């Protein structure tokens, strides 16, 4: 269970970074076409909600993993 949570934690961290780079208008160097991805207001709102959801999930998993590592 601990290993699964740790792997999930890594994936969520990666996706948080990826989504933040998509939202950032300076992400041109990452090879992302920012005008196409976030041109619609509804898409921007959904990406923002997804970003906050993943950040909160990342922080919750961080605290769970920190508590688990103390117990083991």
Question: If you had to describe this structure to a student in words, what would you say it looks like?
Answer:
Belongs to the SecG family. This is Probable protein-export membrane protein SecG. It is a multi-pass membrane protein. With 72 residues, the chain is an all-alpha fold. Helix content is 79%, strand content 0%. It has helices spanning 2-23, 34-37, 41-71. It has a domain at 41-66.
Helix content: over 70%
Question: How much is the average pLDDT?
Answer: 83
Q: Which blocks of ≥5 consecutive residues have pLDDT under 50? A: none
Distance between the termini: 12 Å
Number of strands: 0
Element string (H = helix, E = strand)? HHH
Separate helix tally: 3
Main beta sheet: none
Q: Give the overall shape, derived from the CA principal axes.
A: elongated
The class by helix and strand makeup works out as mainly alpha
Cα Rg: 15 Å
Beta-strand share of residues:
under 5%
Record the SSE blueprint.
Layout: H1 2-23, H2 34-37, H3 41-71
Helix pairs in contact: 1-3
Summarize the structure.
The chain has 72 residues and is mostly helical. The protein is built from three helices and no strands.
